């Protein structure tokens, strides 16, 4: 390899890649925990070293030039390689100290993880846990988290998944709701009730109506992408909610309505990257979560 032909450093290439993917210098600086002037200098240095212009300003935003577009795929491949190197190095770590990043839904992060992490602290006090509370599926291959708690099995072959629990979801109402609207006692009465919807209700309607209900979009007068917000609305009596039995059991003043309806199956998967699974601390946390969630 002609090492003299490589005239830039990785920090400059990373700055270019982050700016291209985030869409602006300010967003890229936040993603890389840098100041905007520092990031701008790195991008400018890369342009000078390569002798090309990578971005042009369009109003307040940046747009890739033709040269920038041609180089982006190459730099993205470098980023993927750097990510794989980081994964492999992390997987070789045999210490039980350091950070482990866990991602789970906002509800699971707020209600299910606290007692589990308290137990983990007693077992491995040297481990620092970062919790990414997100209802979006984080990309473990790009180190957006080390371990994920999901309700769907991943399809990527480089991810390891373990089914740790097969729970179920049911219909729940608060005491305040029952006092105001009455307790529904049949699928017909439930079909006439107001519901609190999570994200797009259209995705849940076929599942709920397969249980014998006749719900339409009109039943969902309040919707939110936040599970915590949805559950708080249910707690305060604004409508019926669909929730797993574990979360409902942690919530005072909530009761299952029309319990004779078939439950909605909800699998719980624990997922990590194959490279990380060899790390002693990642494996310890993975196994601890698996046992605690079972």
From TrEMBL:
Give the matching InterPro entries. LysR-type_TF_proteobact-type (IPR058163), LysR_HTH_N (IPR000847), LysR_subst-bd (IPR005119), WH-like_DNA-bd_sf (IPR036388), WH_DNA-bd_sf (IPR036390)
Keyword annotations for this protein, in alphabetical order, are: DNA-binding, Transcription, Transcription regulation
- Which Gene Ontology terms describe the biological processes this protein takes part in? DNA-templated transcription
User: What GO terms are given for molecular function?
Assistant: DNA-binding transcription factor activity; sequence-specific DNA binding
Per UniProt, residues of the HTH lysR-type domain are 8-65
- Family the UniProt entry places it in: Belongs to the LysR transcriptional regulatory family.
What name does this protein carry?
Answer: LysR family transcriptional regulator
Organism from which the protein derives:
Pelagibius litoralis
């Amino acid at each position: 390899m002609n090492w003299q032909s490589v005239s830039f450093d990785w920090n400059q290439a990373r700055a270019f890649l982050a700016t291209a993917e985030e869409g602006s210098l300010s967003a890229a600086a936040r993603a890389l925990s840098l100041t905007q002037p520092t990031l701008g200098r790195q991008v400018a240095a890369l342009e000078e070293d390569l002798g090309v212009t990578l971005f042009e300003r369009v109003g307040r935003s940046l747009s890739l030039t033709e040269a920038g577009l041609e180089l982006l795929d190459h730099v993205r491949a470098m980023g993927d390689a750097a990510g794989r190197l980081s994964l492999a190095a992390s997987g070789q770590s045999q210490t039980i100290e350091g950070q482990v990043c866990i991602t789970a839904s906002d509800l699971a992060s707020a209600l299910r993880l606290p007692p589990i992490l308290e137990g983990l602290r007693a077992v491995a006090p040297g481990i620092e846990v970062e919790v990414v509370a997100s209802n979006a599926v984080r990309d473990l291959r790009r180190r957006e988290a080390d371990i994920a708690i999901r309700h769907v099995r991943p399809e990527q072959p480089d991810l390891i998944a373990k089914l740790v629990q097969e729970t179920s979801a049911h219909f729940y109402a608060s005491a305040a709701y029952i006092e105001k609207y009455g307790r529904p006692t049949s699928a017909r009465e439930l079909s006439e009730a107001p519901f609190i919807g999570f994200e797009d209700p259209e995705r849940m309607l076929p599942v709920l109506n397969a249980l014998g209900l006749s719900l339409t979009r009109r039943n969902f007068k309040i919707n939110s992408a936040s599970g915590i917000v949805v559950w708080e609305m249910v707690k305060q009596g604004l409508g019926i909610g669909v929730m797993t039995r574990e979360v409902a059991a942690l919530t005072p003043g909530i009761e299952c309505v029309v319990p004779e309806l078939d439950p909605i199956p909800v699998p719980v998967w624990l997922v990590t990257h194959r490279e990380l699974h060899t790390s002693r601390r990642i494996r310890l946390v993975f196994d601890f979560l698996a046992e605690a969630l079972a």
